[in-house]
Amino acid sequence: MQGFILHTQKVKDEDLIVSILSPKRFIKTYRFYGVRHSSILNGYKIDFSLDEHPNFLPRLKDVLHLNFSWIIHREKMFIWQEFIRLLFNHLKDTEVIEEFYFLLLEECVKRFEKQNPKRVIVDAYLKILEFEGRLFRDFICFSCEEKIQNQITLIRAFLPSHNHCALGYEFEEKKIKYFYENQNSRIFNDEEIQNLYNLIKEGL
Fold first, then answer.
1. How many Cβ atoms from other residues are within 10 Å of residue 25's Cβ?
2. Beta carbons within 10 angstroms of residue 109's beta carbon
3. pLDDT tens digits for 34-93?
4. pLDDT tens digits along 34-44
5. What is the value of pTM for the model shown?
6. Disulfide engineering: 6 pairs with which of 32, 88, 145, 178, CB 3.0-4.6 Å?
7. Where are the alpha helices (DSSP H) in the chain?
8. For residues 196 and 186, is the Cβ–Cβ distance under 8 A?
9. CB neighbours of residue 58 within 10 Å
10. pLDDT at residue 12 in the model
């Protein structure tokens, strides 16, 4: 079985509760500390097996770390782990889960090799909003419920508003439309990407 580690929590001694995103499930497991064990860090992809217990969390065993080519790149790993923390908080109350989220992380891992990681995360977040039915394409201000034209201010969860109705980041309407239609952030400059990334850090 394969999955991404979304969260670890220390318990007694060096034991861990490890939350793993697999293709079909969000799994909470127990990891006993031992002399011979693989690294368990947020964001790592692992191959593993479970020892099921009827009255306790399944025991995580036979862990094999599946390496990323960019894992020693400090900045990329920091951005990756930031996104993983946000995703954990978004999914932590779910058990049965759609394969979409696992496949999205796999896509991000590949794109991190050659692309700007913040652009990869911005594109991934848009896909999450689209998949979950939370993407507002009609550009109606969430505050005054009037149509927005030309300049659109986005706040958390990419909610659209007029610049006088909410405090957020302003973007050209044509750029937002391109972004939504193509699910690709290449139309934005680096400052705009940073602004979109700042919105994502507020929470998925």
1. 15
2. 19
3. 645 667 889 999 999 999 888 889 999 989 989 899 989 999 999 999 999 999 999 998
4. 645 667 889 99
5. 0.92
6. 88
7. 74-91, 100-112, 117-131, 173-182, 190-201
8. no
9. 14
10. 80
The torsion of the CA quartet 49, 90, 181, 162, rounded to 10 degrees, works out to -170
Give the range among 22-26, 31-35, 51-55, 189-193 with minimum mean pLDDT.
31-35
Say how far apart CA 139 and CA 136 lie, in whole Å. 6
- Amino acid at the residue 166: A
What's the rounded Cα separation, in Å, for the pair 158 and 128? Answer: 11
Token couple for 120: 């990869």
Joined together, the tokens standing for residue 37 give: 């064990």
| Residue 193 tokens, joined | 């990407």
- Asked whether 124 and 83 are in contact (CB, 8 A), the reply is yes
Here the contacts of 11-19 (C-beta below 8 Å, separation 24 or greater) are 16/40, 17/57, 18/60, 19/88, 19/92
Inter-residue contact 154 to 122 (CB < 8 Å): no
CA distance 18 to 106: 19
| Residue 148, helix vs strand vs coil | coil
Strand-pairing partners, residue 27, are: 20
Whole-angstrom distance, CA of residue 120 vs CA of residue 95:
26
At residue 174, what are phi and psi to the nearest 5 degrees?
-65, -35
